[in-house]
Fold:
Amino acid sequence: MKVYSHEDPDLKQFIKKISKVTKQVEAMKLPYWVFVEESNPVGIVVVGKEPMQLLASPGSSMAFVDLLNMRLPNESIGAFAVEALKLTGENDVEYALAKFPFNEDEAIRRFKRVNFRESDDCYQMVCKLDKAFKPSGELQFKKVKKEEMRQFIEYAERFLQGSPDVALEEALQHISELPDDFLELYYTQEEFFIAYKDEQPVGILNLNTVKGLVSNVAVDHNERGKGYGRQLMVFGLQELKKKGCEQAYLRVHVENKPAIFLYESLGFTKAERYKRLIWRKH
Structure:
């Protein structure tokens, strides 16, 4: 198995086969390496720095390990996992993430053999925005200003606690460490809202109105069971539709049964299920 750096001119002969992946990485201006076996791309390793996933402190080096062909022989998959970890070691990464369709048992098993472990098991859900969404008016929604992002992060840290989503729980350990320059960038990419009931904050919501993505939605623990989660979602879907989105997307852990029930009642369906595995340096 050969490996080619993104700066290696010999990589050009393989780029057409994986251009969908490499274009995304190059747009992010991240270094990457492509692993090739018998002229066929096997996988790619991309190295970046936190807070890309927020599973380590900001500034920590991390990597995405992407198996490009799930139909490879098991030995090739295992060899790629070993070689990918060698490369991450050379780049002194704190952790590496790999993502698989949930039913790719053998590929998952091969990665677990080299000390990857399951990090999360999630659905991507999708909802067509072909109907009207009208909030009840019980809650008041305030759009967060740039200078109020720290306050939003404090509410998010508090309201998102207690989820069965392991990756989210790990991210919450580092959310307060986010640097100001990242918050400024984050603010340019998404819209952030705080929901109030009688002038008291009861929930948070943030949306990517370009991608149609509901990134985070959460209700204060003391205010749950009152229908506020549904009202947050209806408001969010209304905002996405106003911005011209035809579909809404979100990610939810498979064990978060109440949230899945809520989303399905609003018209979301399960589009795919995937597992993420994580390897940590220590």
